Amino acid sequence: MTARNLEWSAAHRPLNGAAESGDLCVVHPFPNGLLIAVLDGAGHGAEAAAAVKAAARILALYPDESPIPLMLRCHEGLRGTRGAALSIASFRMAEGLMTWLGVGNVEGVLLRSDPAAEPESESLVVRPGVVGRTLPPLAAAVLPIEEGDTLIFTTDGVSHGFAESLALDAAPKRNADLILARHGKDTDDALVVVARCMESVS
């Protein structure tokens, strides 16, 4: 799928083929930007799914807000639920910037397309906590983005090392499917989101 100068795709596998999953991807465009968020509800099954769906409704209402206010809105909205891990990336195309923030265990990495870039990749610093239950002090990071840069979010149903040996010129769907096939665990819901900048955004 494409939106606002980004091509993205998700690959998902619920635990034991369950009808409901506690992992959820939310993607919403807004003027000159795009919001990508990944949620991992605490536990499994219907209650975990209810928590992430509640957060998804909030994110859909305020996609143009920056990640810290969005995280606070979700924290309030998820009180009384099991809670969830949540990582958010907000792309501002006109500015050539991505702002990201994570609470819990949704891992994020930004892979640089320029082989001379230093560093070659950036990892999201996820802070311990559960959105809706215990929220840590929040600090978002702002990164410049260029054509070909690739964002990857994974829930904890995907093992570490997923970004190694990826072909960044491959379609996001191919890379998402490849990561899930190689690194998806059989003991948890698993979700991968891959988004690539399609053209110069600065």
Chain-wise SSE layout:
Blueprint (H helix, E strand, L loop, with lengths): L1 E2 L2 E8 L9 E8 L2 E9 L3 H17 L5 H11 L6 E9 L4 E7 L3 E5 L9 E3 L2 E2 L13 E4 L5 E5 L17 H12 L6 E8 L5
Parallel strand pairs: 6-9
Antiparallel strand pairs: 1-2, 2-12, 3-4, 4-5, 5-6, 6-10, 7-8, 7-11, 11-12
Would you give an account of this structure?
With 202 residues, the protein is of the alpha+beta class. It has a single domain, classed as Phosphatase 2c, domain 1. The chain has three helices and twelve strands; from the N terminus they run ββββααβββββββαβ. It has a six-stranded antiparallel sheet with strand order 1-2-12-11-7-8. Strands 3, 4, 5, 6, 9 and 10 form a six-stranded mixed sheet that branches. The longest helix is centred in the first third of the chain and has 17 residues. The radius of gyration is 16 Å and the shape is globular. The two termini are 21 Å apart. The model has no long low-confidence stretch (mean pLDDT 89).
By DSSP (H or I, 4+ residues per run), the number of helices equals 3
CATH level-1 class? Alpha Beta
How many domains, as an integer?
1
Overall strand count: 12
Low-confidence stretches: none
CATH superfamily: PPM-type phosphatase domain
Gyration radius over CA = 16 Å
The CATH topology name reads Phosphatase 2c, domain 1
